[in-house]
């Protein structure tokens, strides 16, 4: 079910805008640049440009999911939830709903870029599949963190925390790589970017700062942990 039709349409429009800007940009990327992400470059302006194009649909999706959990709890209420089904099932249903919506958005994004052929540089089908899976998984965990934060803070604060968590490491990964390379593994945005997880081997842009296999395992474990923590937190709530 579409929870906010205007924001739903806005997400789709943001993906179309992303495609248009990337199609007419001079940035070197693959046919599905939203899977490439932001490379490590010595030019701040170039980094900002890559980041703007990559992050634009992500932040709009973040707005779409923001407040959905709190609204569901407030609308139905704890007594209603307890009578209809367990708190475990209610919380798992919210995460599943987020996951299905995200899969739809990414499928639309894939379709748009495939139809309009933004770039000619291509990778194998297996590589694109792996990049797509880890990209979706990374976003699922990012938005799961946002949902979990909403059980403690206002929706706006939760969204701000997640936005900082995505943006700051993306901009400072070059510095982290020079000083503490292992710190890059703590930032999910690195896993979501083919130019950082080693899956896109574009010669002068690719930087394998995280291992995609380790990233996949970490994403799955972290998502399980977030769902479990959210359920435990939700059980302690009497009212919202």
Describe this structure in words.
By secondary structure, this protein is mainly alpha-helical. The longest helix has 30 residues, at 87-116. It is 69% helix and 0% strand. The radius of gyration is 18 Å and the shape is globular.
Give short descriptive properties of this protein.
globular, 9 helices, 240 residues
Q: In terms of topology, how is this protein built?
A:
Blueprint (H helix, E strand, L loop, with lengths): L4 H19 L20 H22 L2 H9 L1 H7 L2 H30 L8 H25 L5 H25 L8 H4 L20 H24 L5
Helix pairs in contact: 1-2, 1-5, 2-7, 5-6, 5-9, 6-7, 6-9
Cα distance spanning the termini: 23 Å
Helix content: 55-70%
Taking all Cα atoms into account, the compactness measure Rg is: 18 Å
| Main β-sheet description | none
Q: Could you provide a short overview of the structure?
A:
This protein is an all-alpha fold. It has helices spanning 5-23, 44-65, 68-76, 78-84, 87-116, 125-149, 155-179, 188-191, 212-235. The longest helix has 30 residues, at 87-116.
